[in-house]
Each structure stands twice: as structure tokens, then as C-alpha cells.
Write a structure and sequence with these properties.
The complex is a heterotrimer of chains A (184), B (372) and C (181). With 184 residues, chain A is mostly helical. Chain A contains seven helices and no strands. In chain A, helix 1 runs antiparallel to helix 2 and helix 2 runs antiparallel to helix 3. Chain A is globular and about 55 Å long. In chain B, strand 1 and strand 2 form a beta hairpin. Chain B has 13 helices and two strands. Chain B has one domain. Helices cover 64% and strands 2% of the residues of chain B. In chain B, helix 1 crosses helix 3, helix 4 packs antiparallel against helix 5 and helix 11 packs across helix 12. The model of chain B has no long low-confidence stretch (mean pLDDT 82). Chain C has six helices and five strands. The radius of gyration of chain C is 29 Å and the shape is elongated. Chain C starts with 13 loop residues before the first helix and ends in a 5-residue tail after the last helix. Chains in contact: A-B, B-C. At the A-B interface, helix 2 and helix 3 of A face helix 5 and helix 6 of B.
């Protein structure tokens, strides 16, 4: 066991522990903070994999922007330790729980069933014209991400972008519902 | 088991990190003094000029001058914060109340890890940047970590359980999220320009951006609009005066740190100034040519350790000028109203940054098109 | 009747709407202010110039011959709005030649500086011009007792002021010439 392993176990424990504590904490603000800890630990795990760009995006987008808004809303609504109303839709809750546990089991089986050292099942990315014959498969440079995003994954990227745009328009429509009465 | 070489390397890094923290904290402390002195001079006063160590006063010529400049005031201020009674009001959420100053200080000190502040020349003339960690995505790292700084303010405001801190923290988080966007967008054209094929630099490294400005125009002259937007966003992100929504004294008492006192307040205070120091350093690196001499002029100093020292000094001089600029602006401009801040951020700066980006994308494409 | 003329406001030009030239002007102003002469008074080393007729701490004065002027008439004690002055009258001994014709002198004269409001009524009312509010303005002490100025302290603060009347000397010489009243 070397230092990197130790760090891995430390951050993995932090990530999983943060997630568990987020689910079980009574207070919404504590839950949000545990989630931040979990997200930052996952970023640290990315760093251990030398995927600096991913780690930074994790912190920048999730911990830096999304969770701030979460915290913001929780504080603005001033949700107490009891939390909001307990969801009455037990059926949906149970269904969602089953599906996520199922996905987790399938993923674990996939991971341990195929063997960790076997890289043949990983998807491959085309060679970048900028690199002389060298595969970008395990390169963590930004160029790799950029090249992948703007060639092979161009369509998913655009679709995701439009999805977010749609969500944004939806939010604007929902929040501006009472506008006509306020206008003269 | 024990890898001594690794331990030695880790120990060396820790030592460098401690040195750097010491340097930045000292600069933060002296920025407070500079703030007091400059504000005093601008208002026709003299500023702190009493504090002195007992024996220094008797040094001929130099001693009285040091006393007059208030050189020892930060020491006294720090000691005062240390020895003050730690009062925790009864209505606060104790755990988060104690956590908030730490959360505020840590990002401020973490961003300095990727700051290059000089270059060292090996015997065969190769230059090695002086920094703690040469990260390929340095600027993104800085943006990411500094976006975490808002948690300290949000937590402080919320855990204080009192209306003024709460209002301050809400304003601050809204402001920081708004201006982060314009800040990131203003930096994109800069990196597009530097990553232009043929200039050698690639990616988002801060070292490369400094190298691209050696013996070449500073990026401030190439992209003045980007620099302006970045500077305004920097003021907003560091909560400096035209944008000091979180602690606007006149309408929010003390803002997010109203309920804080003693050393915990001191930590908030130092964190704010550390943000200014680091922000000034970033602006120097990206737009003012880092440790390189003047635009279009090659460094006149030799490529030896002398040159290294002069380069670091030159870098520090630029940074200090920017810190002075921060203070200068503070004592010149009045504070924006909250809706004006939001208006400026979303309806002026963001479209401007987008237009700027599109313009430079087109320009770089036009320059880069293969000569056929 | 003057008619109110509403002047149309010129729309701001582009450079004015960015506010940048104005900000630069403001920066110039603050920068030039940095090098102006400072107005701060370094207090304990530099004392302010006390204007004439300044009302400082009330003191008792002696005449140029070194005699105490107060005759303990207690008018000041009576007029003092916050009742800061307390006089214990005493008699002047008969064989004190220098103070002939003066019947009384204060045995004890106290001004409580914690009560004094520096109004100057005592100076105004004094028929002997014995009490003056002079230039001293900073009085401090560690206890309430210290802040009560006793007679010797009052004379020490007051010193001697020029006197143009020598009222009692004149009265004495007139009496010596057999011309009293």
C-alpha cells in the first residue's frame, strides 16, 4: 500500500461517507454540505487518476455553481430540520430506489465481471490529427476532451445543450406565469 | 516501506508551500496597511503612524521613517485579533459559525498553488517556471477554487441567524455566480489568441501565457476589452468596493460578518485581502506580462539567478501596483445598488463578453486560415 | 411671473454611457489628492492654536503683585448652572497688610470638573475678575476626587494675569487720603 492508495481510500471513504450522510442528515443545509464534500472528494479521486480537467470541471460546475444555487434556495426557503413535506408518492419513491439499486448492481457486475485490467471493452476515440500517431485514448489533456466533444460526440453535446435550453425556457415560462396581471 | 526520496520531495514542497503562504499572508496583511495609508492620503489624513517596536525607533533616520509609515501596524492588528475575546452569540448555529471563516480562507490560499511568479534558468539556458504545481489547466483551477470561496460567505450569513448577515450572504452568492460567467467568458478569447498555432503555446497553462508575452505586446494591449471585463468581474468576485454587496456597511451594518468578532473576523478580513493579492497576481500574469519587462522589449536582465530575482521583483511590483489600483478604485467610486450590480452583470458584461468572444473567434479564424 | 423653463436633457453619448472617462477623471482627482498637504494634527506633539476668548478650564488668577483676587463673594457659586463650584469663605487676617480692606478670602475653593460645563458664567459674574476660563482644555484624572480642582490647583492653573484696575489699592489709597467713598 503506497501513498496514492492511502489517498484513494481516504477520498473514497469521504465521497461515499458524504453521500450516505447527505441522505441521512435531517437538516437540508447539512445535507447540501455533505453533498459538496462528496463532490469534492470525487474531484480528488479524478486528480488521483491524473484527470485534472475532469476534476476541475467537477469542482467548477457541481461544487462551485450548482451546489451554491442549491444552498441558496435552501436558505431562501428557510427549510427547517424537519425538511419539507414527506413525499406521499411512496410508489414512485420505491420504484426510483429499485431502479437505481438495479443500475448500481449491473454496473458493479460489469466492472468486476469483465476484469479491471482488461481495456479491450473501453470505447475508442479516433486519433487526433494534431498528435503524430500517438493515441489519445488515455490522454487527459484538454485537447483530447475538445477533440472528442467536437467530433465523435458532437451530436450528444448539441442535444444536451438543447435539453438545457429547453429546461431554461420552461423555468422562465413557469416563473413568469403571473405576469399579465401585473402589467397595466 | 518508507521512500525517503519521496518524503524529501514532499517535505520540500511543503516547505515551499509554507513559504508561499507566508509571502501571500504578509502581502495580505500589508495590503490592509496600504488600504489604510492610501485612503488616508487620498482624504488628506496621515494614516497609522504610531505603532513601532521599542528598539526600532532608535535607529537613526530609518527608525522614525518606518514608524511614520506604520510598518508595524499589521503586527499590532494581528495580535489584537488574536487576543480578543472570542464571543459566540447565543443565536448562531455554532458548528457552521465556526466553520465559515475556515471555508472562506482555504480557497483564497489554495488558488496560489498554480500561480507562477518567476522563472529559473538552468545551466543550459532552459527556463523553469517558479510555482508550486505546474498545472496544464491552471486558469480553470483558479476559477474552480475561487468559486468555492462563496461558501464561506454563504455559511457565515446563514449560520449567524440574523437578518443583515443573511441579506449580505444572499447578495454575495447571487453576485458571485453572475460575475463568474462574465469572467470565464472574458478569458476565453485570451486563450484562443495565445493558443494560435505558431506561437507555441497551447492549452490553458498560465506559464505559457506569460511566455507568450515575453518580447511581445502584453495581452492588455492586444485585448483591452477582455482585460476590462476581466478586471470588472475580478472586482465583483473579490467583493471590492464598487461591488461590495456582501458587506455594504451603510445598508447592511457589516454584511455577512456582522455577528463575527475577534480572530474569526480577522480570518474573514485576511481572506478578503488574500483574494485581492491573488487576483492582482492573476491579472498580472494574464494581461500584464507576468515577470517580463515592458511590451515589445526583451528582458534586459541576464538569464541567471540575478535575472530570476529581478523578474520576481518586477512581477511583485506589477502585482503591488494592481493592489494599489484596487484600493485606488475603492476610494474613488461609490457603491452600486444591488439591482445595478445585477443589471451590469447580466445585461451589460455578459453580452459584451459574448460579443468579444465571437469577434476574437472570427479574427483568430481569419488569421489562422491556411494561406492558399 | 417667471415661467419655468424645462430644459431638455441631452442624451448621454456613448463614451458617457460607459462611464469610463468619468471614472478616469475621478481616479485622477483622488490620485492628485494623495500629494496634497495633510490636514491631520498630530495631537500630543502638535497642539492646536487656541483662539482668543477660548473658554477652557476655569482657573483662579492672582494680580500682578501676587495677591489672590478672589474675595469669596460666592457669586460664581450662585450663578454656576451645574453647581460645580463650592467655596468655603474665610476671613483675611487683620495684620496682613498687603490685603488691607479686603475682608474675605476663600478658605477653600473647589471646582468639580466633572460637573463644569465651561459656560463661562463664573468669569462673567465675578466682580473681582478673579476667575478666568483660560486656554487649558485637557483635564484628566484617574478618579473622581482627582477631577475636583482644589484652590492651590486652581491658582497653579491660573497664574497671574495683568490687571488694569487695582481696585483695592485705589480704594486703600483713597482711604489713606481721607477720601473714602
Amino acid at each position: 500500500m503506497n501513498a496514492v492508495d492511502l489517498l484513494f481510500y481516504f477520498f473514497a471513504t469521504l465521497a461515499v461517507g458524504g453521500g450516505v450522510l447527505m441522505v441521512f442528515s435531517r437538516h437540508p443545509v447539512s445535507a447540501a454540505l455533505f453533498m459538496i464534500i462528496s463532490l469534492v472528494s470525487v474531484a480528488a479521486l479524478f486528480v488521483l487518476l491524473e484527470a485534472f480537467f475532469l476534476a476541475i470541471l467537477q469542482v467548477l460546475v457541481y461544487a462551485g455553481a450548482v451546489m451554491v444555487l442549491f444552498l441558496f434556495i435552501i436558505m431562501l426557503l428557510d427549510v427547517g430540520p424537519e425538511g419539507g413535506k414527506v413525499s406521499r408518492l411512496k410508489l414512485i419513491t420505491g420504484f426510483a430506489g429499485c431502479v437505481s439499486v438495479g443500475i448500481l448492481i449491473i454496473l458493479l457486475l460489469q466492472l468486476f465481471g469483465t476484469g479491471i485490467g482488461d481495456n479491450s471493452s473501453w470505447p475508442s476515440i479516433e486519433m487526433s490529427p494534431y498528435v503524430n500517431g500517438e493515441s489519445l485514448l488515455f490522454s487527459t489533456s484538454i485537447k483530447n476532451f475538445g477533440y472528442g466533444l467536437f467530433t465523435k460526440y458532437m451530436l450528444p453535446l448539441q442535444v444536451a445543450g438543447f435539453l438545457l435550453l429547453g429546461a431554461m425556457v420552461g423555468v422562465i415560462v413557469l416563473s413568469k406565469k403571473s405576469l399579465p396581471t401585473e402589467e397595466r | 516501506m518508507l521512500d525517503f526520496e519521496l518524503l524529501f520531495l514532499v517535505g520540500l514542497k511543503v516547505l515551499f508551500a509554507l513559504l508561499m503562504i507566508g509571502a501571500v499572508m504578509t502581502m495580505a496583511g500589508y495590503s490592509v496597511l496600504a488600504e489604510r495609508k492610501v485612503s488616508a492620503w487620498m482624504q488628506g489624513r496621515v494614516g497609522p503612524n504610531r505603532t513601532v517596536l521599542p528598539f526600532v525607533e532608535y535607529i537613526p533616520f530609518l527608525g522614525p521613517y518606518l514608524k511614520k509609515m506604520g510598518i508595524f501596524q499589521p503586527l499590532a492588528d494581528g495580535l489584537k485579533f488574536l487576543f480578543k475575546e472570542e464571543i459566540i452569540p447565543g443565536h448562531v448555529n455554532k458548528f457552521y459559525y465556526n466553520l465559515a471563516p475556515i471555508v472562506a480562507l482555504v480557497p483564497a490560499l489554495t488558488t496560489m498553488v498554480v500561480l507562477p511568479f518567476g522563472e529559473f534558468f538552468t545551466s543550459d539556458g532552459e527556463s523553469i517556471p517558479l510555482m508550486l504545481a505546474d498545472l496544464e489547466v491552471g486558469i480553470l483551477f483558479i476559477l474552480a477554487i475561487s468559486s468555492l470561496g462563496v461558501y464561506g460567505i454563504v455559511l457565515a450569513g446563514w449560520s449567524s441567524n440574523s437578518k443583515y448577515p443573511f441579506l449580505g450572504s444572499i447578495r454575495s452568492s447571487a453576485q458571485m455566480i453572475s460575475y463568474e460567467l462574465a469572467m470565464g467568458l472574458s478569458l476565453l478569447p485570451v486563450f484562443l489568441w495565445v493558443s494560435e498555432p505558431g506561437t507555441g503555446a497551447m492549452g490553458l497553462s498560465l506559464v505559457d501565457i506569460v511566455h507568450s508575452q515575453g518580447n511581445a505586446p502584453w495581452l492588455l494591449l492586444v485585448q483591452p476589452l477582455s482585460a476590462l471585463i476581466f478586471l470588472i468581474a475580478l472586482f465583483a468576485e473579490t467583493n471590492r468596493l464598487p461591488f461590495d454587496m456582501p458587506e455594504s456597511e451603510t445598508d447592511l451594518v457589516g454584511g455577512f460578518h456582522t455577528e463575527y468578532g475577534g480572530f474569526k473576523f480577522g480570518i474573514f478580513f485576511v481572506a478578503e485581502y488574500a483574494h485581492i493579492v491573488v487576483g492582482s497576481a492573476i491579472f498580472t500574469i494574464i494581461f500584464l506580462g507576468g515577470w517580463h519587462f515592458l511590451p515589445w522589449v526583451a528582458d534586459p536582465w541576464p538569464s541567471t539567478w540575478v535575472g530570476t530575482l529581478i523578474g520576481i521583483g518586477w512581477f511583485l511590483a506589477k502585482t503591488i501596483f494592481l493592489i494599489f489600483f484596487f484600493i485606488w478604485i475603492r476610494w474613488t467610486l461609490p457603491r452600486f445598488r444591488y439591482d445595478q450590480v445585477m443589471n451590469l452583470g447580466w445585461t451589460k458584461l455578459l453580452p459584451l463578453a459574448l460579443l468579444n468572444l465571437i469577434f476574437y473567434v472570427l479574427l483568430v479564424t481569419w488569421i489562422d486560415q491556411p494561406a492558399s | 411671473m417667471a415661467k419655468t423653463v424645462v430644459l431638455p436633457r441631452e442624451p448621454l453619448s456613448l463614451s458617457e454611457r460607459t462611464y469610463l472617462p468619468q471614472i478616469v477623471t475621478g481616479l485622477k482627482t483622488t490620485f492628485s489628492n494623495m500629494f496634497k498637504e495633510k490636514v491631520t494634527l498630530q495631537y500630543p506633539e502638535e497642539k492646536p492654536i487656541i483662539p482668543k476668548n477660548y473658554r477652557g478650564v476655569p482657573t483662579l488668577v492672582k494680580d500682578p503683585n501676587g495677591r489672590e483676587k478672589c474675595v469669596s463673594c460666592q457669586l460664581c457659586e450662585f450663578v454656576c448652572p451645574p453647581k460645580a463650584i463650592r467655596i468655603t469663605p474665610g476671613a483675611v487676617s487683620e495684620d496682613d497688610n498687603s490685603r488691607a480692606h479686603v475682608e474675605k478670602a476663600p478658605k477653600e475653593f473647589e471646582i468639580n470638573m466633572l460637573r463644569c460645563i465651561y459656560c463661562g458664567y463664573c468669569q462673567e459674574v465675578c466682580p473681582e475678575e478673579a476667575i478666568f476660563l483660560q486656554e487649558e482644555y485637557s483635564s484628566s484624572g484617574y478618579s473622581r476626587e482627582e477631577m475636583i480642582n482644589k484652590k492651590d490647583k486652581l491658582y497653579e492653573l491660573g497664574g497671574t494675569l495683568p490687571d488694569s484696575h487695582y481696585k483695592w489699592d485705589k480704594k486703600k489709597s483713597a482711604e489713606d487720603d481721607g477720601n473714602d467713598h
